[in-house]
Amino acid sequence: HVQLVESGGDSVETGGSLRLSCTSQRFTFSKYFMAWFRQGPGKEREGVAVVYSGGGSPLYADSVKGRFTISQDTAKKQVFLQMNDLGPEDTAAYHCATGWPDFDYWGQGTQVTVS
């Protein structure tokens, strides 16, 4: 079955940057969405950014627009999240997800802590 593995989470200071990576295994879909979600302490899960395998403009949550950039390597079925100007409100477990048309597959998450 499909597996997603995230990496890149860390503890950083306010204003810092991180780059998250998500690598998929046994992923054979030719058409799919890849996205990043996050869930902070005591908060509901939030969609952060999504990109479509066929191209087009990514979509971002208002809370991260202008600070986060999602990108993908379709050949390697990888998705990345460049996060700049991080603040304490960005503290969360970040999960990547993929599927078509729904997000059927999820990674275990990588923790980002901003203080």
Structure, described:
- The protein is 0% helix and 50% strand.
- The protein has 115 residues and is an all-beta fold.
- The strands form 2 sheets. Strands 2, 4, 5, 6, 9, 10 and 11 form a 7-stranded mixed beta sheet that branches. A 4-stranded antiparallel beta sheet has the order 1-3-8-7, with no helix packed on it.
- The protein is globular, with a radius of gyration of 13 Å.
Poorly predicted parts: none
**What is the C-alpha radius of gyration, as a whole number of Å?**
13 Å
**N/C terminus separation:** 37 Å
Which percent range describes the beta-strand content?
over 45%
Q: What's the overall average pLDDT, rounded? A: 94
**Secondary-structure element pattern, one letter each:** EEEEEEEEEEE
- Broad structural category: mainly beta
Number of strands: 11
How are the SSEs ordered, and which strands pair?
Blueprint: E1 3-7, E2 11-12, E3 18-25, E4 33-39, E5 46-52, E6 59-60, E7 68-73, E8 78-83, E9 92-99, E10 105-106, E11 110-114
Parallel strand pairs: 2-11
Antiparallel strand pairs: 1-3, 3-8, 4-5, 4-9, 5-6, 7-8, 9-10, 9-11
Keywords:
four-stranded antiparallel β-sheet; 50% strand; mainly beta; seven-stranded mixed β-sheet
